[in-house]
Every structure is written in structure tokens, then in C-alpha cells.
Predict the 3D structure of the following.
Amino acid sequence: MTRKPMTFDIDRSPPTHAEQSVKPKIASPTPAAERKQVGARIPSMTYRQLKARAALEGVTVQTLVEKAVEQFLATG
């Protein structure tokens, strides 16, 4: 007797709870070629809170940092 390999049809499976709650990510208008990398040292606990909040919002830390810098420059 031969066994059939297990297959999963991902396209027809119902979305998980995590997949349903994730907001769509908005692409940044600036291409990667036009970006500069910035480094900063912040307290570990602050970074952990930032990372957790970003995950809950469904965005990356990079996106939050970009928005914060843009807001800071706009209020200058």
C-alpha cells in the first residue's frame, strides 16, 4: 500500500485570527535607492515597547520612525 503525500491548499484555507487582524501595509513613497540609513541608541525598554506597539498596529518600526521624523520636521 502506498501513501499519498499530504497536501495543503493555502488558497482555500480560511484566514487565521492573526491574518484577519493585520492591517495592510502602506508602501513608502521613497524608493530604497534614495534612502539613507540612520542609527540611534535608545533604552532597551523603550525599543521593546516601540516594537510591540508597531506589531499591534501592523507596521514596521522603520515606518514609525519615518513618520516621527517627518512630523518633527513639519513642526520645525
